[in-house]
Known about the structure:
Blueprint: H1 7-11, H2 18-22, H3 35-38, E1 68-89, E2 92-98, E3 105-115, E4 120-127, E5 131-135, E6 148-163, E7 168-186, E8 192-194, E9 200-202, E10 207-229, E11 232-239, E12 242-251, E13 262-271, E14 274-282, E15 287-296, E16 303-308, E17 315-319, E18 325-335, E19 340-349, E20 367-377, E21 382-400, H4 405-414, E22 416-435
Antiparallel strand pairs: 1-2, 1-3, 1-22, 3-4, 4-6, 5-6, 6-7, 7-10, 8-9, 10-11, 10-12, 11-14, 12-13, 13-16, 14-15, 15-18, 16-17, 18-19, 19-20, 20-21, 21-22
Amino acid sequence: xxxxxxxxxxxxxxxxxxxxxxxxxxxxxxxxxxxxxxxxxxxxxxxxxxxxxxxxxxxxxxxxxxxxxxxxxxxxxxxxxxxxxxxxxxxxxxxxxxxxxxxxxxxxxxxxxxxxxxxxxxxxxxxxxxxxxxxxxxxxxxxxxxxxxxxxxxxxxxxxxxxxxxxxxxxxxxxxxxxxxxxxxxxxxxxxxxxxxxxxxxxxxxxxxxxxxxxxxxxxxxxxxxxxxxxxxxxxxxxxxxxxxxxxxxxxxxxxxxxxxxxxxxxxxxxxxxxxxxxxxxxxxxxxxxxxxxxxxxxxxxxxxxxxxxxxxxxxxxxxxxxxxxxxxxxxxxxxxxxxxxxxxxxxxxxxxxxxxxxxxxxxxxxxxxxxxxxxxxxxxxxxxxxxxxxxxxxxxxxxxxxxxxxxxxxxxxxxxxxxxxxxxxxxxxxxxxxx
Length: 436
């Protein structure tokens, strides 16, 4: 894999919140691990065992999968995000608008489960938990707060589960994360830089900050399931925090570098710990209900600092001061006949930032998920799943600078931004499942 652009960019989230609304859960988190779960808004995932993808959210659910199973799928994500506002600068007031600035993407996944014996089960999973890509218009008047960002992660899991008895199962796994990304901020056409003598130097079009890099790291996950009786089940799962150190290079006059000069560096970026508590309830032969509560430790994301080669002190990129995020989801499945099952769900995802700490590049806000899906069993071995979700993001106000020193420096160059972010996201997924 060619990792040429990294999360270091993300690390530079610095002045523009491009990061978060491009992803579909809080922060730059991605929830889209399977088309099966997509159709119920990922309600009850830590207690569900539809197919081999179940291990992604709770490795203990492997104990509910008989024989050897394979699941392969992909989810198409189409974010439609806009930012509208004005930049107030000593020279004038400028319109700062960018339409549909988050890029579409296809998120693939692959899962394999294998029953070793009546007690032990193994699994392998390949997917992603984090990612996004945004690019604002080239003439965006607030580009001094950021104009491009991309984060891509791929995660490989090796999981093992143990069935203690008919009631209790436990599982765990190792997570190998590959990450890359980039971030950039440029001076808008009206930007001025103090010359230190009471005057100003025009710097429109120059790179203020650009960083790219990549890294690999390890994490872990644990899960458990309690089969209360044949119709009711509770599952819980925990994923560890992964502290990435993104290594790459930086350039731009914002780092005190000459035009075109590059310097090596690194930046720490946490992928936060997560926890899910879920339940599954078979109400009748045809109807089932499921629900989830999710917590993500986004409060671990306090600031971004660049450690540049040859410079003893870290360079503050952005004060973030994020807060923990919570997600609530409820869904239902209806078994219409032996071959066709239908599902639907609704979820509410809280923002990972307060109103004060929202930025253009991370226009984080509350989101509501509305989902529908279906499964069709062509044979007892082969099942095809599909899911569709519409995510409505709450309109939210953004003001930069927020009063932090790093923000104030950007404001001094290009002016103060005041505006609003609006948007929605469409997701469509398909998944093929086969039992050997």
